[in-house]
Amino acid sequence: MSRQDFPERVGCVLLALVVVFTTSGCETLLEEDQFREGQVPIEKRRRIEPLDLSEVPVHEEPTDPPITEPAAEAVTLGLEQCRALALENNLDLKVQLLAPTIAAQDVSAEEAKFESVFFFDAALSRSDQPQQDFVPIGEGLYLPSISGSQTRSWNSRYGVQVPLQTGGTLTFNMADARRRSLNVGSDPWYTNTFTFSISQPLLRNAGRRTTRHSIRIARYVQQEVDLATKLEVIAVVAAIDRAYWRLYAARRELEVRQQQYELAQAQLERAERFVEAGEMASVEVLRAEAGLAQQLAAIITAENALRDRQREFKRVLNKPGMPIDSKTVVVPATLPDPVHYDFDQRQMVAQAMDNRIDLLRLELQILQNLSTIDYLRNQTLPLVTLQYTYNINGVGPTGPDSYDMLFDKNFEDHRMGLTLSVPLGNERARSQLRKVLYQRRQHLATRQARQLLIKQEVL
What we know:
Helix 4 (91-97) runs antiparallel to helix 7 (213-277). The protein has a six-stranded antiparallel beta sheet with strand order 2-3-4-5-7-8. Strands 1-6 form a two-stranded parallel ribbon. It has twelve helices and eight strands. The protein has a domain at 74-116 and 212-337: Outer membrane efflux proteins (OEP) (Up-down Bundle). With 459 residues, the chain is α+β, with helices and mostly antiparallel strands.
């Protein structure tokens, strides 16, 4: 390898490194996760389709005798088994169980804000600039002429940028340049520069507490999602318990209605015997028949209620092979066993204040308000940035010569600067701060009202 081709070889190697870094940072997505555009057709959004009954077949009464349906299959389930099936198959719970994973990815994304960044840029240029010159044609006489200056240059820069948790930024970069004039008798020159720079805000955006604000908010949101998931689990268990005992009550009510119907039928038979014996008036038979009809209507109502409770139970349970419209009859196996407990009211109220999920979510919202208030108060400060840059320079007729001068550290630059930016009025930042202060007061008032409501519910 010739010394003149050294920068081109270095540039090719750096370009290959950029390709490797770029491809390694790419995430392969499934086909259904790829970007696509779509819209709902306008006729579905703005047009109400009429109901066309012309093609719907008209129901005709069957002329054949009715076919007796086979007996429905009975399934016996206990309360604990129903709870396990509901937690396993409930669709709303399956949706909610993905929320903590999504919230964890949000936290991970915020924590990655301090990751270092590798950067690289390169440019190859060729220029032809006109130059004015004076050619001597005699003693004291010059003739103006135009000549061209053609140059070809290669410039590249690569380095690493490191965000700091204090709000500043560290940058390490190496710049390579090769400049060669295409005119006759010109030799190429190589320039290399190593740069270290630091930029640190002193007021606004300064400090770990300010830079980690978004991470704290993401973690608070993650805790809220965890509480919402826990609440959804409790809601599913409570829903299956209610559906189970409502089904049990509907079955027992139907049994009672059937017993009442049997008693009313026996009462009608007694009334008929007494009327035939002449011991009662015939109106007693009518009264007994009316009572029997009422009990029959009560049985029909209880059967309809039992079917509704069966459908509700199957919907909450969502067991595979037992859809809502199935003929399966669910028989509760767990019998009620009420037990009287004597609770300490003060202890129950204190426990409710500590464990109620709605109150815990309010506490997290108040913590978010406090973090946001601290962050926005910092944003009202002026932007003062301290900057320092340190350079090591190298130059030479060949690439290795330029690097040798660079490593000898004979030519160094130092630069320190201060940047000040103060918004006139600063009303935008102050308004945002006041808004969050009012929101915190609102959440505090809501917490007091919720505490009173919880105390009333417990007592």
